[in-house]
Structure formats: C-alpha cells, structure tokens
Fold these 3 entries.
Entry 1:
Amino acid sequence: MTFESEMLAARQTFVVECRDLLDEMEHLLLGIEDTDDPQENVNALFRAAHTVKGSAGLFGLDHIVRFAHVVEAVLERLRSGEIEVSTELIGVLLPCRDHLADLVYGAEVTEHATDEQEATTDALLARLAPFVDENGGAGSGANAAEAAADGAASGERDVHLSLRFGADTLRDGMDPLSFVNYLATLGTVQRVRVIDDLLPEADAVDPERCYLAFQVQVRTAEPIERVEEVFEFVADDGDIRVLNPGTPAGAWQDLIDSFGDAGPAVAEILREFGAFDDAAVLDAATAIADAVSGVPEPATPAAPASKAASTTADAARPAPSGQGDKAASGQGDKAARDGRNIRVDASRLDRLIDLVGELVVAGAAASVRAERTRDGSLLEAVDDMMRLVEEVRDSAMQLRMVPIGTTFARFQRVVRDVSTSLGKDISLVITGGETEVDKALVERIGDPLTHLVRNAVDHGIESQEQRLAAGKPARGTLRLNAYHESGSIVIEVSDDGGGIDRDRVFAKAVERGLVDESASLTDSEVYDLIFEPGFSTAPQVTDLSGRGVGMDVVKRNVKALRGTIEVDSRRGEGSTLRIRLPLTLAIIDGFLVGVHGSSFVIPLEQVVECVELPSGVPDRNCMDLRGEVLPFVRLGSAFALGGDKPKRENVVVVESAGTKIGLVVDSLMGEFQTVIKPLGPLFEHVRGVGGSTILGTGDVALIIDVPGLVHRFGDRERARQFEAVAAHA
Amino acid sequence: MAKTILVVDDSASVRQVVGIALRGAGYEVAEAVDGADALRKLDGRKLHLIISDVNMPNMDGITFVKEAKKLPAYKFTPIIMLTTESQESKKAEGQAAGAKAWVVKPFQPPQMLAAVSKLIMP
C-alpha cells in the first residue's frame, strides 16, 4: 500500500467514526431543550465537536478544523455558562452540525472543500458570530501574529542552554541525551559540558536517579521559544534555561546562582563557550567559590527551590478535575458499549444470511434423503444437524436486528423542523426504541414513517389556539412507539390532536367518487379511505404534507414490506396509525400444503387452524365452520392446476385483515422453514403469490400471499355474481 | 532492530494515521483500542515508547498509565499522552501518573514524530 492509499483508507475510517459522533450531536442538540440537565448534553456535544476537530486536524483537513473550531468555541462558552441555551442558538447549531456532517462526508473523497461548502462555512460562521466571544474569535489571528514575530526574531547565532534535569527524569522514561540529540534537528550542537556536582560517592548512587546537568551551545536560526519547546516535557520537573547571546547580565547571574556550589564551574564553562563575557559577573562567581570552598556540606539552593515549586504545582493540579471525571464516566458507559461492538459491512451480512438460507434448503434436502434410508442413526444425526441449522438461522437473523430507536431519533429533527415552520409547539415522545427490527426493514420503513410523522404534525395536531380553545395544553404531543406482537413488529404513530373527522372524510370520499353516498360504512372503513389514492381533506394545503399524495404511497410501501397499516381515531382525542410488519424479510415460518401434486407455502402467522372439508358441501365456495359461514378458495382452481380431486380435502383457515377464509388443499405437510426467494420481475405482479422457495426435495413451492389471493378471489366472485345477475335479467 | 511503539487510542482513524507516520519513520507499531486492551497487550513485550489517548472506554488513559507504571518491565518506558487544549487538568493527572510527555490534539503527524524523537532515538 502506498502512503496515499493508506491515508485515504484512514480518512475513510475517520468518516465512519465521525458519522456516529455527528448523529449523536444531532440527537443531543434536539434533546437539549427538553432535558432537565442540559449541561450533560452540552458537555457531550463539546466532546463530540472536539473529537471531530481533533481527528480532522490529524488529516490536515483544515477547512473542517476552521469550522469546527468556532463551533467548539461556542460550545465551550455554553459549557462555561457564558452564554445560555436558547432556541436561536440551537437553531444555528443544528445547521452547523449538518454542515459539519457535509464537510466530513466530503472528506471521504477529497481533502478540500468545494466553493459551495466554503460559502456555507462563511455564512454559518457569520451566524455563529454573535455567540462567539470577541477574544475567542480573534484567537487564530493572534497566533498568526505571534508566528510572524517569531520569524522576525530568528537569525543564526549561538544559543546557550543550561539543562538541569529533574531527579525523576529517568524514572519517567526520559533520556536526557535523547533531548540533546533532538537539538540537532534545530541546528548544530557546538559544545556540551556535563555538570556532575550532585553525583554522590559510587556506593550511594541511586541508578534510577538523574544527577546530571548539562551546559550546551547550539548554533541555530530558530527562535528561543522553539528551542525551549524541545524541553517542554522536562521543564516542569527540571530547570531549563535557554539564553540568547546578548541577554542582560542578570539572567546569566541567575543561571550561575541556580547551580549553587557548582556556580563557579558553570561560570568557567560560560567563559569557555564565549556565551557570556561580563568579566565582573564571572570573576565574582569564581571569587565566591574560592571563599566558600572550605564550608562543609554546602546546601544546593536550586534543588530544594525547584522541588518546592513542583510540589505546590502538584497540589494545585488535581483540584479542578472533578467535573472532567464525571463527564468521562458518563461517556464511559456509551463507549463501553461501543467497545463490545464491531462494524460489519452490510453486504457481508447479507451474504451470510443468503448462505444460511441455502444451508436451510440443503439441510432439508439431506433430511428428506435420510428419511428414505430409514437408517436410525443417520436420521438422528440429521435431526441434530437440523436443530443446529435452525439455531444458526436464528442467530444469523439476530445479527440483522437493530433497535428501531435510531430511526425514531431521526424524527426529533423532523418534528422540530415541521412544527417550527407551522408555528406549532410539539414534543415527540419515543417509547419502545429498543425494539429490534430487521435492518433491511428499518431502512425501508423510514420514508413511510416520515410521511406519517409529518402528516400528524401538519394535520393531526391542531394549532395552539385551537388546542387552548379545546381545553388542551398548548403543546401537542406526538408519540412514536414500537413493540413486538406475535411474530410481527408494530410501530405506532399517535398524536393527541383533533382526531379524524369522520364526516368530512366521508364527504370528501363521496365527492371524489371513492364511495357511494348511500354506502353505510363502519368507522374503520371510513378511516381507511384516507389511504385511497388522491385523497386529501386538509382545507389548507401546506407545502409540507398536504398534496393529496402520500397516505396511499405509505400504504403501498407498507404492503410491499408484507405489512399492514390501520387507523384508530377518537374525535377530539387524537389518532393512532399502526403499522404492522413481519419481523424479517428473508425467512419465514411457513405451512406446507400439497395441491394436485404441487406444493404451496402459507405463512404460518396467518394460519388459524386446519379442518377437513366436509363432504357434500354445496358448490357455493362456502362451508359451515362451527356455525359460522366460512368462504373458501380452492387453490387448485385458483391456480388452474389440472389433476383429480382427492378423496379427502382439507381446509386451511387463514385470517387476513380481520376476516377468515379457508384455503382448500389436498394434503397438509406441516410447518416448514421457508427461505423466501423473490419471484422474477415477470411474475412479481401476480396476485396471490408472494414469492417462492425451494423444498428439500429440490422442488419449487410458491408462497401464498393471502391478502392478495383474497382480493383476487373477491374480484372474481363479484364478477361471477354480476354475470349471474346479468344473465337473469 | 526497529524500536517498537504501542499506540493506544479508541479512534481507529487516529491509530491508523499515527501508525502510518511512525512506520514511515522506521518504528514498529503495535496498537490497542483502550487501556484494558493495552494492558493485555503489554504482556512483558519490549516497548520503547507508549502513546496513549486519555478518554477511552473500558479503561481510560490515566488509569492505564498508572497500571503500566506498576509493571517492572515498563517502569522506564516513556509515555506520551494525547491531550487536548481543553484538558489541562487531565494533562496534569497524566504527568502525575507518569506520562510526562504529551501531544496536544489536534496534531498532525510531524508534531507526533517530533515528540517521539525527543524521547527515543530512532
């Protein structure tokens, strides 16, 4: 891999990582006004923005850093309480988050921003300006000025360094020599002298302790600050001095003094280096040395002084850290969860599911063949294998399950945006977010849900005035709820608005010619009319949802997922739209039946019971089921299968959309794990057939789409009756 | 024999970039995703330097440094903390724990290499 391609790969990792952070930011921003403790959100927001900025900096994505820096600065002020959470501020920060996301996603392909993105950056920075501290905004400018000043101060000369390393330097894993070595990157190291005044007798030496000090002369063009920076890691615990030639005598005097007893030796070195040649200072230093040389055990003032300094510094440090700890532990929970997760390419997962599907089919084939052998031990082994295959299937399906909460969370934004633009005050309450759904379903349910949510905000919940007049709180509530119910997942979108106006819906439907004026319909039948194409009752069409398209599209989308949608509504109290979807799209539990030598699979969820077809039923396609009239469909004739009627026929009673019907079949073959294989494009519009599957024997079985079949049969039945009536007349 | 550096950061992109820079400069690089992972990976192997982030899941950088410093094999291993300008207190904590060197995020690879070469000679 070349350097470029490695960096590109790393940048893609960066984009993936940021995606989570950016999602979190949106979530936090939306939640900030509702939470009791906005500080928690602000801290998390700040960390997220900071991490994005940090990683972007790593890749030299300066356009992202520039923008994120200002966002971060605003969040920092929010965090420190200089500014407060306000609707205006969130209103600016949300588009900032979006733009940040846009910039980050762009980084996947290019290191630079487009002109358009730059323009947006500038526009947003202008909007952020009122929230930015005057000094904070000028910060980068000041840095630039500083850098310019540094440049001016440079010029090649001999810089003198006095390095007294802290006693713990070695214990801290740092090698004094390594720093001196690094100096060579800034210029030429001219001379080095070691000062070993603190070195005790050999037997008293602590090998882990650093006793040495150095005097170094470097010829460099770098400014003093750059040279000092080399030693930033040891500056706190040691005594590092970097002096330009021509520095006033006082500083040199201090330097000599700091070495205490060794002062005269240092003065000697300075003279030798030619670093400083004020004879008065140097001579005085040497003279003092002569005078005190007789004093036993001289104190070294430098060491205790620096020790004292570092002790006070240590004591001062831990104090402000309390809040940081709390923030870190809060983040820890989430991060801990993340740590146990791994990312997998969705296509690999799909491949696995596909293979498991094949495995189920192959397993069934093996089982069929094993049965033919009547070999007990083989049958047992195959049974064991099938049980494991079933478990593998279940765990593989589990892999595809994701909590629906993330999809729900997206709607915070939708509700906020739509309600703001309509001048309504609506809060979104999410429950059941942990309910798990097949990932493919989650992706495809997003659009229909968006439509329902917008619709509820737009048409469902009344304006504030209307609400107050009706004695309701001004703030409307929209609820998103999800739960599992007998093999299906149910998603509810409910509002506490005015409910559906039955009469208006009916009137509208009559006006549109959807129903006859004289028709007597139940409430739920009337409500279902809103799913008819071209139906819209909103007197005032807004640009958001009321175009008369939508609800029918929603219904179509839900049906495409093998789901159903129903409405519950109470005048003045609100409505609930309930979407019921199968848990998964790839494998279902089916009920296998045989008809005239062909096999069909009926989704097990829809099977109520199986009964034998009573002999001698009239040729009216209905029978008596414990006193109820049960209409039935002969699958053989529905699919025009040739063949003779067997002696005994069975009826599988299925339930669809609240009505029971019977499917007449020849034989019942029991439950069957059905891997759904979609039909080719040629057949996908065939009503009554939902897909196909491969049986263990290698035969193909069609999967019955019960609602479709009922519809098809109903149509035909009506046509037949019509013909009969016409013939009479 | 190239010198080995352990990079501990929960962000895969940071590990990748730091790894690219260090390998390019001739170091061997080992990676760990958090403090706990890093401790497992220490396992007595010879390391010349450790670079660790501060905020990480499972075990944060400060705790990791404290734990690592307790192990005789790593008593003298220099440690660079990845701090941020807003985390002065964390920097001090890190230093108290034994990570005397630091690089402030956001940094670019040359800054990281500079800090590394101050501590160990390639």
Entry 2:
Amino acid sequence: MMRVLIAVLAFASASTYAAPPAGAAACSGCHAASATVASPVPRLVGREAADIVKAMDEFRAGKRPATVMDRIAKGFTDDETRAIAAWYAGQR
Amino acid sequence: MSVSRRRFLKSAAAAATGLFAPAVIAQAAPRVVIIGGGFAGTSCARALRKADQRLAVTLVEPNATFTACPLSNAVIAGLRELTAQQFTYERVVADGITLLRANATAIDAQARSVTLSDGTRLVYDRLVLAPGIDIRWDALPGYGESAAERMPHAWKAGEQTLLLRRQLEAMADGGLVVIAAPANPFRCPTGPYERASLIAHYLKTRKPRSKLIVLDAKDGFSKQRLFENAWAELYPGLLEWVPLSGGGKVISVDASTNTLVTDFGRHQAAVANVIPPQKAGSVGDIAGVADRSGWCPIDPATFESKLRAGIHVIGDAAIAGAMPKSAFAANSQAKACAEVVAELVNGRMPSAPKLINTCYSLVAPDYGISVAGVYRPAGGQLAEVPGAGGVSPLDAPRATRVLEAQYAEAWFRTITGEAFG
C-alpha cells in the first residue's frame, strides 16, 4: 500500500504546474515572451516585480507617457497587478 | 470535468499498479487535439506544451503555410509583400507538437474522437476547435465562389489578397473602387475601414483622380470618429462612406458587370471588394458546436462549447461576448484556454481567465490608431472590465499616430513570433 501511495504521489508531483495568474498570459500579445522578437515594447520576463507594479500604477494614474497602456492598466486591480508582476519576475 | 477527473484517477491508479514505470506514465499522458493552425490554434498548442510538458498535443491543419490577415491590407495597397504574411510550422513541431496535415471530417463528442480526411482516428481527452471563419456563400445574392474571382473578398489572406492588389494596379486613374462591408458580427471589425484607408492612400499617391466608396450594412463601426477625422484630413473628396441609413447595404451583386446593388441604386465599379457575411469555419458544424447564428456559443470561463461537452472553441469562430474577432483576441483566448485545459486534464478546477484585446489600424503607413479592452467572464459572457479600454485619443498629436503605426508592426512581429517563431 505504501508503495502504491508513493507511486501516486510521484505521479501527482510530476504533473504539478503553477498556472500563471489571471491576465498574465495576455500581456505577451505585445510584450514578447521571446528575446528574439525585435520590438520597442519592453519584455516583462525576468523584470523586477516592483518595476512592473510601479509602471502599472503610473499608467493607471496617467502619470506615465502611454499610447495603450493607460487604457489597459485600468482593467487590472492592485492585487492582480502584483500577482502578474511576481509571476513575470520569476520567469526566465 | 468529471469524466476527465475519473480518467485521471484511473490513469493514476494504473501508474500505481504498474509500479512507477515511466513508460506507463508516458502512456497515460492526457491527449489534447487542436483543429486549426491559425493564431488561435497554434498559440493554444504551444501554450499547452508550455503549461504541461506531459501533454500529448496534436495540431490538425491541412495547409503547410499560414497566411496572416493582420497587415494584409498593406499588401493590397502595395506597401508590403504577401511573403511577409506567411509562416510555417517548423518551430511549432519543434515544441513537441504532432502536426497532422489533414482536414477533420467527423467529430464524435460522445466517443471523444476525431476522424481525419486521411482516415486517421484520433481519441482525445479535450478537443480545441480554432477553425476561423468561412464565407457564407448563400448570404448575398450573386456572390458565390466564382463571383469572388471577379469581385474578391480578400477576407482570407492569400491569393484573394493578391487578386485585389492586381485589380487596383491594373485600374486606370479615375476609376471607381467600391468596398462592401457586412453587418456584425464578422472577422476583424475595423478591417474594412483600415482597408478603405490604405486603398485611399494608394489612390491618392498613384491614381489621384479615382474615387473610393464604402457601402456599409451598418450605421457605425469601431474607431469611427478616429477614422472619419483621419479621412477628412488625409483623403478629402476621395473616400466616401455610405452607412446603412444612407442606403449603404448591398443587397445583391452582379459579377458579370462588377455591379453592387443597394435599395437606393446600382454602383458599377472598376474594382469591387465584397466583404461578405461570414460564419464559423465548417469544423464548427461538423462538431455540432455552431448554433443557428453560424457561430459557436461558449462558456466564458472555460471556452467549452455550450452545445458539446469536452470541446472548446476559441478565436473568430467563438461567440466571445464583447471580445472582437481579432488575431489579438484569438491569441489571448488561446493562452487562457490552454491554461483551462491543462488544469482540467490534470483533474484540477481552472480559475477564471482575464483577457486583453488590442487592435491597431493603419490609416496611412505612418498613421496608426488603436482600440483596447480588458475582459473577464461576467453575466454569462466575456464582458469588458468597466472603466478600462477604449480608443486612441481623438486629439492625440501626430507623433502619437506615428508611434501607434510602429507599434502595429511591432505587435505583428510579436504575435506571429509567439504563434509561429
């Protein structure tokens, strides 16, 4: 029985997947996940979480020059923004 | 959900009795089949592999080359080559995705199986349909497939795009170009107006005595004020938009004379671009997930069909509430759907998605405008988050328009990189 249990646990852990928080995957439509794409839009992967949160706060407040990010930032709460920022900071 | 979960538990039990043999675990890998290799299907396939390397992901797509619609209006206007729109699947396959070059001919939602045109039968744990659009050849009298050889729709990029471009190039200066725009919903709601803008740019720079009329089956459209302001500034006297209430709805066409007929009169065009009514790609019918509207109703939190369990629909074919039928929305839905499917096949409850759309339009090569929105499931559909989104400012300086034109092209490189690069 113990052996069966261990096998089940091993199977379960092999399939463990930390899903990105809501909204995080949508960002890469403009902020390229791949470093090989040439774009003036900054990558978010590996960026300091605090930098992303600050930028989003400033976009929301209209304190940072923007074309679309002022409009998009308003669609995310502080909690959502922090979760997305932390997730991108942990990506490589 | 419950079926998947049962299967998962059964697989786990099988793995346990088989005593930790990796081969057994590999055999038990959940199978996800995706039909359609456009922005939605390809993005979803890659996101699924990223989410869970164990998943057996199969992408069914008959074409060896994908031709992208976004920026294809620039090809029509001679500003870009069609080859810049074309992508292949080598990198997709390199991600460990099985690519099958075939059409789906039958789908059995009960047996969870797909039959392909080459006779192959695929069994799935979850099926994702991303069939894009089909033209409704029965919807506009006179406009069948042979009429489209004379009056191109150019609404699926490829040979039709080049046909419309060649017709414009062959037209004498002083000719009349007519675009017929359909009623909602249809692929790329701002596409007809970007196309009108870039054709007007071509006429202004190459054939300035010509005229362009847009006959519209609607009284309004996305980014309308921005377009109309730009048209007045850039193309005065050259481009005329005729709304539904002004007699703009095309009720029939005659391809033999290149004539578009409305309730108010007949327009004989030198070049006629008929953007006809559309519906979900035919796979939607084969799977039984399209309703009487021709489009596919979905659960806004999971993208699962409201008509068939275990089948998810993303991209242009889906009825996605407030989200437009755009490549950006397709890619955004694809990644959210991949997360949902990865959770479901692993026996977990998915969390509610949050999505973004941004659509750029080029009014001229160096003049871009945009509309953006943030979406989440609410009231049984994908609804806009209030207070967010909207269009580019009406009073933005020209430098902003230049910047947005650059961002439009950067977006295209990014999204095609994510799907195909």
Entry 3:
Amino acid sequence: MSKQRLIIIGAGMASGRVIEHLVETAPDAYDITLFNAEPRGNYNRIMLSPVLAGDKTYEEIVTHDDAFYCSHKIDCRFGQKVTAIDTAAKTVTSDTGEVLAYDKLLFGTGSNPFIIPLPGHDLEGVIAYRDLEDTQAMMGLGQGNRAVVIGGGLLGLEAAAGMAARGVDVTVVHIMGHLMERQLDPAAGYLLRKSLEEKGITIRLEANSKEIVGKDGKVRALMLEDGTELPCDLLVMAVGIRPNTALAAEAGLAVGRGIHVDDQMLTSVSDVLAVGECVEHDGALFGLVAPLYDQAKVAAQTLMGNEAAFVQKTLSTKLKVTGCDLFSAGDFAEGEGREDIVFRDPARGVYKRLVIEAGKLVGAVMYGDTADGNWFFGLIKDGTDIEEMRETLIFGPAYQGGVAADPLSAVAALPPEAEICGCNGICKGTIVDAINAGATDLGAVKATTKASASCGTCTGLVEQLLQVTLGDDFQMPTAQPICGCCDLTHEDVRRLIKAQELKSQEAVWQELGWKTLNGCHVCRPAVNFYLLADWPLEYRDDPQSRFVNERKHANIQKDGTFSVVPRMWGGITNPAELRAIADAADKYNVPTVKVTGGQRIDLLGVKGEDLPYIWADLNKAGLVSGHAYSKGLRTVKTCVGTDHCRFGTQDSTGLGIKLEQALWGSWTPHKVKLAVSGCPRNCAEATCKDVGIICVDSGYQVSVAGAAGMDVKETERLVDVASEAEAIDWTVAFVQLYRENAKYLDRPYKWVAKVGLDWVKERLDDPAERARLIEAFELSQSIYRKDPWAEHAAKADAFQPLADLKLEAAK
Amino acid sequence: MSWIDIGALEDIPLRGARTIKTALGCVAVFRTGAGEVFAASDRCPHKGGPLSEGIVHGQSVTCPLHNWVFDLNTGAAKGEDGSIATFPVRVESGRILLDAAELTARSAA
C-alpha cells in the first residue's frame, strides 16, 4: 500500500508531538508536509521564559532540528503560509501559489496573543510574549531600561521576572484585584505579589490601561485611566491568547471560540483533524502543555486508524520564577457544598488552602511550601476519599501525630527591632532582654522597660512576648480576640499593622494568621478601617468591607429604603438649598421629611435605585453628602454666636463651619459629632459631644469625650486656647490621635476612658506631635475630603437591578 | 434547565452583590472574594433585610439589618432557625447564567 499524504499546518508543540508519534509507530503510513508561518521548525515554547531569564539558550529549547526533519523525510515549508483549503477537492493552496493534495489534513495553527486595541498599540516597542522575536526584544533590555507588562497572569509575570533579572525596571499592570486570579486565590496572590516586589518589580493592581503614549512612532509610556503615566522603553502585553481559527473558518470547519473537535480530535469536516491551542473540545480551550500532548497522542492514534479518545483532566500550574514557590491545581472556586481547609504560617510566609467537596479533594492552592503539591494533585486526579485523613490532610503525606499551628507565630516572627510600644519607642528586643533578665510579668516589664506603660494598647503584644519567651512559665490572661477569625485583639491587630507595615487586607489575613479566607462582617470593617487610617496612600477604603450604609452612602431603614441627609455646614442653609431639597422630596416621592438633631434635614424613604438621581439633583444646588451614615464626621452643631446673639463672645457659627470643612469626609473608628457654642450658656449643647468647644471672652475651651447616647457623659477639658486657629489645630490633632489609636467602634469617650485623658493631653501638648498629627490627617484628607455622592451619582447603573426577569417572562 | 444570561461577572463587585427582579421577588446574585457566584432570595426571613446589601465573606453573607449570617451554598442561617431559597447559577465566559426554569417553575407552583 502506498503512503497517504498528510499535510500539517503549523509547527508547534502539539503538532510536533503528533509527528513524533507517527514516525515512531508508523513511519511508513504517511508522507508528511509541514507548513509553518514562522521561519523555523518546532521549539519548546514554554521554555522561552528560561531563555529570557538567561538560564537556557534558544538552541537548547529546539525540539526538532533540521536533522530530525531530514531523517524522517518531512517536507518542510517553513516561512510559507497556507492561504486556502478546498475540503471537497482535498487540496491546500500556499502563498507561493502551489496547490497540494492531501488524504488527511491536521490543523495545528495554535493561537494568537490578544492585543488590547488601546490607542498606540501599533507603536514600535509594543510586543506580546509569544515567540522568539518577542523574547529577543525583551533580552535586548538591561540596566537603565524600563518596561511595563500589561497582564499579571502566568506569562506576564514570567516576562516581568525575566526582565527584572536583567536589571530592567519593570512595572506590572494588572486589571484584577490580585495576581494570577485564574490560578490563585487572593491570599496566595498577595504572597506572590510580595515575592515579586522583593525582586524589585512594581505591581499595580486594579489598574486600567487607557492609552499607550508614543514619541516618534516609538512607545514612551503607558497611561492609566487614573492619569498615571508609566514611562517605558518596551511594553509587553500578556493578556491572553485567542485560538487561531481564521483559516479553519474560511475552509468551512465548525468553529466556536476554537476549532470544534470531537474526542478523536476530528473536526466537523471529514479527514481534517486539529490539535493544540487552536481547538475547542467540549466547550474548553487549552493553553497548558499537558492536555496538548494528550491531544497529540489521540490525533496520532486516529491517523493510524486506532481507537483513542481525548479526556479532559484536572490541571496543575507552577510558575517558572525563581523564588516564587506556588502551586495550584483543580478547581478552587465555583460550586456549591464545598468546604475549605486553610493553613497559614506567617513566620515562614506559607499559605495552603484545600477545597473539599463530598469527601474528596477537588482543589489546592499553595504558596511558600509546595513540597506536597504533587501528592495533593494525585488525590485530586484520583478522586481519593479523604474523610479518614481529613483532620491532618493539610499537613501532607509525611504527617504523623499532631502539632497545631502556633497562634503566637505572628509575634514570634517579629524581628528584634520591631517596635512594640509606640508611645515609648520600645522594641521587641528590649522587651525580650528584660524578660530574660527577670521581668517575668506585665508589671515588671512595664516597670523596667516602660513598654505598655502609657496608652496600654500594646499590652496584649507584651503579654504574648512574655508567653513566647517564657513558655509555660507564663500564665496568659484571657484577652478577647476581635472575632472567631483570629486570636488577636483589636489593639494587637492595630499595633501589628503598624509594626509589620501591613498594607492590604491580604497581608493582614496572612501575616496575622487569620483562620478564615477573608474575615467576616465583624473583623473586616475593622481591619479595613485600620488599614486606611494607617496607610492612607497605599491602601484605599474597600466599600465591600463596609456596612451597607457606608457603602451606599445613605442610611438603610427597616423597610429597605434609605434616608438622604445633605450637609448643612454648621447648620446654616439658604432658600436656594431649601428649594432644592423640597423639589427633590417632591420628585422622588419622599414620604417623610424630618429636621434632625444635628441641625439639618433628613429625607426618609428614598428607594435604593433612586439614590444616584436624587444625589445628582441635590449636587446641582451645591449640596453634598452629610455623611449621616458614616463612622466619620457627622455634624458640627453651632449657635449663632456674635453674628446675632447679644451674649455671643466669638463667631461660633464661623468656627463650626471651618471645623466641618476641615473634617468632613474623614473615616474614624466610630461616628464623631462636634458642637461649638458661642458662650457658656451652651445653646449648641457642646458639652455632650465627642469634641465640644465653648467660646469665652478670652478664647476657646476645647473639651472632648462627651456622650449623649447609650451613655450620657459630660466632656472633659482638653485645653484652653486663645485663637480660632489653635482651636481648630487641637481638634484636628485629637481626631487624628483617635483615628490612629482607637479600637474600631469605640466612640472617643470609650477610647479616652481606656487610654486616660492624661495620656491624650501629654501627646497633644507636644507641638511636634501635634503638627505631625495634623499633617497625617491632612494627608489622609487629600484622598477622602470629597463628596461621595457626586462620585456615585456618576455610576448610577450600579444602583439598579442587574436584570429584570419579569420583563423577560412577559416577552 | 433554561439558562438566562443576566449580566457580566464584572458587573458585580468582588465580595459584593447585585439584585435581579423576578416574578418571585428580588433575587440577589453574590460574587465572593474567590470569584464564586451564588444566587439566593434577597429577603432575610428574620425582618426582611436586603441580603444583597450585606457583607460577603467566605461563602457567606451577613444581613445588614441584624447580622444573621447565611451560608450561600445551602441558604441556611447559621445559628438561627431560618433559611433562604437558593437558585442554580453558573458563569460561562464571564457571563452569569441563571436557571430561569427554576424561577418560573417555583412561581407557578
């Protein structure tokens, strides 16, 4: 029997493997003609990253050299494209005009990198990461060059790490909230980011690219949506691949996202097969090499007339970046009835998460220690029943007997120079030395080192140090952790966020040993606040970690409607504002209009979907959010002062307005209410506020820590000052000290009761500290002093239902 | 089953929710931090709180009115006697698909 003619389009890893199977098993079955658009044969594409990193040369990753093709008598048409296929006549036409007949045709056309059609995407120096040319372009960079990589997936990060290893200043721009979101969960993504940043790579998450800026036809910078410009000499887009199906579609093959194939790798047209990244099998596309090799094996069997079927299998991923030890396998998202086992070891930077469904392991994500990865992968693939070893599963195959994770490891992991007591500047090392020298209880540590002898918020940490240092000799007093998600108190978490410079929620979950994936409704709002208060520039408020009122910027009522309270600075309004409020009340059928205790007007009963529109209307009249819903500045209540009152001693209204304008928009541990009275008759009821100012002839009496809610308490005098400016300074400094130190949901009076008014006075009395507090507050306000209503009114869509299926049903 | 495309995954904030109007009342579609999507009744059986406005943590949501916590897999309230209806939902190519047959079948019943 004479040989049949096989034409292969595309010399890639999948088609190359088909050729190997054929020439090994049935060398006499086919005359093979191999077309390839690239002017070379088959090389191991997944090894381009080691080539980029300088660990391998191109020659080392060539799979099939000329000698291979020659010895198997393969007719190579490299650099030639197939331009047309006639499936009826069973011929292909090449770009040289030649027409070749086939008995069997195999598509291995692979995929094209997806290029985001940003303005400037066609500039010189904008590349994908796909072939040898791209790799060489990246290898051409070195010290002093800058590169931007769009895409924080597998390929993008390998490209970034490879260039960074060559001394290039690399920034990765990723649109999602964490790196490699398809393979990793946020916790592992956080650790990966940390490792990459240690390699000097800058990572920008949730960053939308807007435009590629060029100069003289060459890339100069990437501009982000927020206006940031990232200068670069090379821009690499690694945002995904698209199966290359154009030729197949023209030839009349069934094509979806990829070329449709059945279990035998046969396409919809007889005698035409397809393998690799260009195919779509049972709804799935393929990018990793393992399934491509499986397909190649099946395609070769089919070509040889044998029975074989391609089966999709669970896949595992590893990143080829030195020092970033990660592993992910199976399905760790999606699906009902699943349970997690999470293990974190902050001291070693280890995170492991197993996903269990119906007594079987279905997914695993690991970072830092991936030694057991393949064992877990085996359990996933085999569908092993793990109920018996469930308790100890996460510790891996070597596990015998039990050592529980150490809840003290976060403290144990701190370096000796980490500051424990911020008030007195005492480091861990000093305290440990004192303990070793005989200070074996809290009192003794306080007496010898001054640690925890001032505000006392680090008491929990000092106690943990005693326990770590003394072991069983120390009896730990029971402290209340924030919630069931962790073992630390609010005060400990605040202190550790500062000491360890934790700047993201993921960092807190990981480094402080959280037992849940992303906290709960108790700890998440607290941690969100602590992060934004301590790192105003690095961390941004996360609306999804806010209680509904603060996310919706309106107060939810018991029937699910909302209340809307526009700000009236110092309680002052005018006819135009009142008209706008009246018009809005009419237009949105507001059932109740009420004057509040904070000298403003409350519109009650507004529907959630109307919020952005009523805000837009109120904005037009110059009215902004009154933050009547927030853990932040609510109102500054005033009396009319010297403007009208015959008893007024100072301009209390004017001071109230200035204070409100300085403080509005800021987030605080709990709500903050102020009042300024123009004389000791105190018509503004300033002496039961968080900060109350009483004007007197000689100046201003600033008092703090009052209450008129669950508890009623008179304020305590903080300071008497002569000028309005000083009164504002002291107030701002007090609010910032409260922001930096209080436990979430402690009103100032509760916080002051814990730390003592003397401690507060001592801090604020120091002009340098006062200036620092004011500066820190201003820095935070540079971000938060703005109207959230105006911002949200522009995104009205987000307030509407996602879909209306009632309409759908009516159709 | 008849899957209806109700919107893009990105339309729901991570660890957030959006609502859909149906003949059965509002259905909340949740997106967890790990990227899973769940659909359930938007109404808390306790005092009718809108669950779509709650804090989403792990595979649970906390009602914004009185902090009842619901497991989104089963709809069961944790430590309380009550539950919410859950609905089949899946994500394909970044689009969220809801089983409309389920919704109309239950409303007809």
